[in-house]
# Entry
Amino acid sequence: MAMCEASDLNRLPIFRFHPNAYDLDIFEVLDGVCEACEMPRAMRYKSSFYAMEDVEYICPWCIADGTAARVFDGEFSDAAGIEAIPEGTSFSVEVYEAESLEVATCTPSYVSWQQEEWRSHCGRPCAFLGDIGANDLPQYLTEPDFAADVNGGLGWDPASILNDLERGGDFAGYLFRCLSCGAHRLHVDAC
Ligand SMILES: [Zn+2]
Ligand SMILES: [Zn+2]
# Structure
């Protein structure tokens, strides 16, 4: 089953659910041999990968085409951490499940304190954009679903989020964007 894009070794693969992956300190330039494709590579993935084996070197191509997940029977993000679609929403279960599998097995994770969670919107997983802090919030607060995330929807005190959220800090925010409608969503995590 071809879940993911085929690899193109002439350029780095693009992750539609993680479009800023190469800007977010989850890959490092390091010569080595990828343990999934056994090819000499110059870029190593350094964020989380959940598998029975300890895997030290995974190249971006083996993430994108699903090779690493298949070879090591692993996941980059826990599929159970992908937000379910609210009841009463009409959506395609097939699309949601296929895209959730793409997030879990063909998409890099992101760096967080606890186990990563992945927001959803319009019946599908969102794209993860990066870290977000209190100063970044106002531009998104006019969006009802983002405002709902801030105003208690995530179980955190809204005043704490609005005042104390810090990019990469002990009380950290993570920004997601819907691939269908462009709406933004928030995830908050504390160490
Ligand atoms: Zn590889
Ligand atoms: Zn949407």
